[in-house]
Amino acid sequence: MLHLAGKPLPVVGRARMYVCGITPYETTHLGHAATFVWADVAARVLRHLGVEVEGCRNVTDVDDVLDAAAARAGARSDSFAAVQQFRFDRDMTALGVRRPAHEPRAHNHVGQVVTLAAALLEVGAAYLHEGSVWFRAAGVPARAGLDDAAAAALAAEFGQGVGVEHPADVAVWRPAVAGEAAWPSPWGDGRPGWHAECTAMALTTLGSALDLHVGGADLRFPHHAYTAAMAEALTGVRPFARAWMHVGTVGHRGAKMAKSTNNLVLVSEVLADCPAAALRLLLLDRPWSAAWEYDPAAPAAATARLERLYAAAARGVGEQGPAPAAVTAALLDDLDVPTALDVAEEAGGPAARLVLSVLNLT
Ligand code: ZN
Questions:
Q1: How many angstroms is it from 215 CA to the middle of ligand 1?
Q2: How far does residue 67's CA lie from ligand 1's centre (Å)?
Q3: Is 283 inside any structural domain?
Q4: Which of 253, 263, 300, 319 counts the most CB atoms within 10 A of its CB?
Q5: Ligand 1 centre and the CA of 320: distance in Å?
Q6: Ligand 1 centroid vs 242 CA: distance in angstroms?
Q7: % of residues, the chain, pLDDT over 70
């Protein structure tokens, strides 16, 4: 059985896995890549156990940041997003990330956000104020282990507005702003809130609850906390997500990798002189939840580690022993890739071939 962050995740037969995907306004950097490669590995380890994984990775193509980036580039938001999405797909293919069964795009799910907002109003979990539908969220910060001040500071980092009845309330729907894309609703033209988009896409594609919800560490709050709270208020099914994977942030030159700090390392840049499997290994050869700093010497070290693993895999053809079971045990223990790789490198043969196969490093 897979354990994540010290908790067992028992699954029989099938697992529903939702991965918060990209806002297609910048090309894939190592921070994005780490999240999606780790999500891919969690799915592959579940499949190794015989579990069928139904995956969903959304595209947040209704977003202020995307609109602003497209305007700067002198392009329409939809065509700008299509180009960025093409580059993202190219990078994911290079990194061996399996395409999920569902790839919903936010602009195709605006109708479901309207339905979500109407239902939250009807059950009293939301209220209407000047064309906005606000989700009642007074208890959401405490459930995420945050006091109101800490929650407000994190929410402000994402440009989340302050609620009318309670500061923690969040817009499910907000009125149109001149110059932004808008859609009709019973409350006038407007657009969905970010968290509501993922709630609507997850409920539509995977149903009332998830076995695993994956995203970068910065999505823990507010995004995942509010996404879950809205879904639970609608369905009554708790918890919405049985487990979360919040993948560690990637830093470079002393700061979190971000366009605003101008320290992005793009997947395509690293792949110019590093095999794709070595970059995949570089992203995985560490605890998945820990923040880490990208070192420009790391691709060469990862390439050497991969070559040692390939050499180990060629040894001892047909020999068995306890090592393959030790590899599997390490992967089930919070996806402990470094230990699995150490066992494989030492033992060689079937253990090395197993880890290379399960982690898709061949
Ligand atoms: Zn999301």
A1: 7
A2: 18
A3: no
A4: 263
A5: 43
A6: 16
A7: 99
Check whether residue 20 and residue 120 sit in a common domain: yes
In this prediction, residue 318 carries a pLDDT of 67
What is the per-residue pLDDT for 65? 81
Q: Calculate mean pLDDT across residues 220-232.
A: 98
Is residue 121 located within the same domain as residue 18?
yes
- Tokens of residue 51, six digits: 């579990």
Distance from the alpha carbon of residue 296 to the mean position of ligand 1, in angstroms:
30
Parallel, antiparallel, or unpaired: how do β-strands 212-216 and 14-19 relate?
parallel
- Ligand 1 centre distance from Cα of residue 178 (Å): 26
pTM for the predicted model, two decimal places: 0.96
CA of 273 to the centre of ligand 1 (A): 33
Looking at the fold, whether 219 and 129 belong to one and the same domain comes out as yes
Instruction: Average the pLDDT over each of 60-64, 115-119, 199-203, 305-309 and give the range with the smallest value.
Output: 60-64
Closest CA to 31 of 323, 299, 256, 296: 256
Query: What's the whole-number average pLDDT of the chain?
Result: 95
In a domain, 272, yes or no: no
Residue 274 domain flag: no
Domain extent, residue 314, equals: 297-362
99 and 232 both lie in a single domain:
yes
The tokens for 88 are: 């993202």
Mean pLDDT of 28-54: 97
Q: Where residue 320 falls among pLDDT bands split at 50, 70, 90?
A: confident
Whether residue 257 lies inside any domain: the answer is no
pLDDT tens, position by position, 260-279: 889 999 999 999 999 999 99
Ligand 1 centre to CA of 197 (Å) is: 7
Measured CA to CA, the distance from residue 123 to residue 264 in angstroms comes to 44
Query: What separation in Å is there between the alpha carbon of 4 and the centre of ligand 1?
Result: 20
Q: How far is the CA of 21 from the centre of ligand 1 (A)?
A: 7
Using the structure block, give the residue that is written with the tokens 């956000």.
113
117 and 234 both lie in a single domain: yes
Q: What's the count of helices (H) and strands (E) in the chain, helices before strands?
A: 14, 13
Q: How far is the CA of 224 from the centre of ligand 1 (A)?
A: 7
Lateral strand order in the sheet of 244-247: 52-57, 14-19, 212-216, 244-247
Q: Give the pLDDT of residue 61.
A: 86
**Centroid of ligand 1 to alpha carbon of 227 (angstroms):** 7
Residues 238, 117 within the same domain: yes
Instruction: Find the 181 Cα to ligand 1 centroid distance in Å.
Output: 20
Q: Are strands 190-192 and 212-216 parallel, antiparallel or unpaired?
A: unpaired
